[in-house]
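Progress report, Aim 2. The chain analyzed during this reporting quarter is listed below.
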Amino acid sequence: MRRSAAGSLVALGVLVALATPAGAADTVGLVDPDQGRWHLRTAAGGEVSFYFGDPGDVPLVGDWDCDGVDTPGMYRRSDGYVYLRNDNSPGVADRRFFLGNPQDVPIAGDFDGDGCDTVSVYRVSEGKVYVVDRLGDDGAGLGEADRSYYFGDPGDVPFAGDFDGDGVDTIGLYRASTGYVYLRNRHAPGVADVEFYFGNPGDRFVAADWTGNGVDTPGVFRPSTASFYLRHRNTQGVADEVVPWGSAGWLPVAGDFGLPDDLPPPGEVVFTAAGDLGATSRTRRVLEAIGRVGADFHL
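Predicted structure tokens for the chain:
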């Protein structure tokens, strides 16, 4: 996840995440893991959806090409391959490479503050973070991690973000059994710099810059209510924002997706191309403006 001078991520163990320039708030998204269908939401409540990846892939979000827009990624746990796309539209991956071991949990973020997001892994069996500051290509492996260290307990759910606003994404952990959040502000072994309780056991965690102030803070997607609960500070307390949206089986992501704020809100009509006869002139202009032919826009 990127910021004006650096980056910030949002990733989750089974979900993922995120980037945003200071001053622009991140928004939420959801991925249907059974279909590989992405649903991205604008600040005004509009939505775009498209297919990317295979059912069962682990979704990621990041600014892979350093253009300031967060786009989809997928981690295929069965073979350890990463698939990244540079546009929020249906299509094939722009990058494909091997990373880590099957069953590792992917984490995406700007871990060195260069304004570009990369993919790292958390090895759940070891409670160990492996940080990589570069992306691979052409199906090759990435080689050794640039940094590695122990943090947390086996079974914790990792995510990444810029928790102190210094422009560098670091690692956080969500202990789903207790609802505790543990944040570390350096890429080094040690205890959490910040810890607090947020959410309920069973919530699906996601972190992002919900206010545009340059600091990533927690959010959860609660399957029982099909709603996001977002907190604007890295402290214990109730949600500052609730977003009812989605379906219980979907996985949360977040980021600055570069979508127009005036996309129509979700509804009953779906257009799959800019030239659909039922589309209003306003809808056609929106579709043509962002060039998402083949994606679904919900009115």
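The chain has two domains: 27-260, 264-299. Confidence is low (pLDDT under 50) at residues 4-21, 267-299. These observations will guide the mutagenesis work planned for the next reporting period.
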